[in-house]
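> call design_seq(struct)
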């Protein structure tokens, strides 16, 4: 086998590995999104309170940083 052909074969194999990894990552993200949406729909008030609290804390931290 010619060195160029070996390199091309390795590139094709590597591309297949990367595509499989990307598909697996996509599937995991779809599952995570579904779980998150379900959780928020089942617990809207605690999620809203948590979001407000987190926003407040981030705002306070940013304000302190910009004052120095």
């Amino acid at each position: 086998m010619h060195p160029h052909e070996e390199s091309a074969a390795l590139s094709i194999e590597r591309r297949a590995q990367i595509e499989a990894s990307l598909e697996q990552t996509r599937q995991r993200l779809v599952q995570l999104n579904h779980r998150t949406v379900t959780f928020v729909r089942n617990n809207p008030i605690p999620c809203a309170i948590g979001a407000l609290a987190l926003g407040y804390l981030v705002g306070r931290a940013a304000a302190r940083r910009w004052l120095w």
